[in-house]
């Protein structure tokens, strides 16, 4: 799960595994696998960075770091 911010400043959390596409138009649009679309304050690069961090975190094996 990653925390993002709507344009009105409201924070919310989404499952990064459900992200299908991220676009910059100039606002950042996120399309989910359900075809729902979200617009967030974070840049495309920041959403990708948070998604990668989430993906790495769920694959960590405790005690092997």
UniProtKB/TrEMBL annotation:
UniProt xrefs under PANTHER family: SWARMING MOTILITY PROTEIN SWRD
Keywords: Cell projection, Cilium, Flagellum
Protein's name according to its UniProt entry: Flagellar protein (FlbD)
A Pfam family the protein falls into: FlbD
InterPro entries, sorted: SwrD-like
Organism of this sequence: Gimesia alba
């Amino acid at each position: 799960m990653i925390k993002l911010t709507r344009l009105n400043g409201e924070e919310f959390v989404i499952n990064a595994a459900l992200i299908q596409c991220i676009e910059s138009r100039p606002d950042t649009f996120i399309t989910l696998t359900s075809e729902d679309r979200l617009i967030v304050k974070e840049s495309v690069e920041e959403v990708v960075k948070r998604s990668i961090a989430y993906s790495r975190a769920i694959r960590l094996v405790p005690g092997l770091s």
